[in-house]
Structure formats: structure tokens, C-alpha cells
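Human:
I keep going back and forth on a fold encoding question. Comparing notes only helps if you start from a blank page. Show me how you would write down a chain together with its backbone fold. Write it directly below this note and I will take it from there.

Assistant:
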Amino acid sequence: LGKDGTAYVADGYGRTIWKVTAEGDEAGDAEPWVQGEPFVHPVGLTWRGDDLLVVDPQANAIFAVNPSGEVSRLFPAE
């Protein structure tokens, strides 16, 4: 969960990180936040400060997604 209560979900098959908000027309509204390249099969999420870390074993990488949705590779370093 983010600081504002928004849930983030890794969808390995859809190569997507979803945002599920607690507010909106209906509670639980989901929208794709980041998807596609460079993800292959993202499965693990955790926070490091304001960045969401994404583990993708099929890409053999750990990515960081900043609050604006920009993805950068942390490991292995680019």
C-alpha cells in the first residue's frame, strides 16, 4: 500500500503494475500504472522511500518506479 492507501499490484502475465484506489466512482477502481517494457514478468513489490521497487525474475532485474511512473533499472545496473 502507498502512503495514501492506494494499493499496487504486480501482474506478471499482463506485464503491468496496477493502481487500485480506495476512492472513485466505486471503491477498488483499478487502472494500469506502468506496463510493458522493460517488464517481462513482474512479481514482487516493495517500497524504498517514495519509489516502488519491482522484482522481475524473468528479466533478471530489479526496477524502481518513481511517483511519476518512470521506470529505471536498479539491478543489474544499466
Notes: The chain has no helices and seven strands. The chain has a mean pLDDT of 92. The beta strands are 7-11, 16-20, 30-35, 44-48, 51-56, 61-65, 71-75. The two ends are 28 Å apart (CA to CA).
